[in-house]
Amino acid sequence: MPIGRPSLTERRKAETRLDVARAAVGLFVAKGVAATSAEEIAAAAGISSRTLWRYFPTKDSCVMPLLAGGIELAADWLRSWRGDQDLAELVEAMRQPGLSADDRPAILALVRLTRTEPGLRAVWLEAHRQAEPVFAEALARRSGLAAPGLAVVVQAAMINAALRAAVEHHAFHADPAADDAADGAEAAVSEALLLAARVFSG
């Protein structure tokens, strides 16, 4: 894994990918996935179709950078969770909004679409599949382990499942028109982690 600040080129690529993801979600919400073309997504993001296909293998996968941003934030929380801190301190950190105020509603709108759009559902589940080993690595480092053992892998799976369930539950049940609809996701994540911890602790 490279160490240090990403290069300017890498940062620009990441910004372009995020612009595409935001444009794709906006169009998918407004028109539906089937009625949205890759050319429309590219035009909305201010790039050519050829550039879009260099970054993304499918139209549905254009949304991955938005999902990955939320998961990377969770990984950052886990990396900063010190060994002398308990779960309550991790939960408190997760109560603080970490994503852009503009991106939170878009992510919730995207998660709502996963109920009816199989392609987006597959991307959402793939994002969490990729997240699990990242979470396990962060937890192993917290415990001073060279590599994740079975206990750490199970903990990572538990956290991953709690995060996914919390965001889905909030997205599916919160009123999208409510002013604070996007702000409740952090509270839902915190509650899910506490519930999961309670189950595993007996």
TrEMBL record:
Residues 37-56 bind DNA. Residues 14-74 form the HTH tetR-type domain. It comes from the Bacteria. The keyword Transcription regulation applies. The keyword Transcription regulation applies. InterPro entries: Homeodomain-like_sf, HTH-type_TetR-like_transc_reg, HTH_TetR, MftR_C. Keywords: DNA-binding, Transcription, Transcription regulation. Gene3D superfamilies: Tetracycline Repressor, domain 2. It holds the Pfam family TetR_C_14. This is TetR family transcriptional regulator. It comes from Lentzea roselyniae.
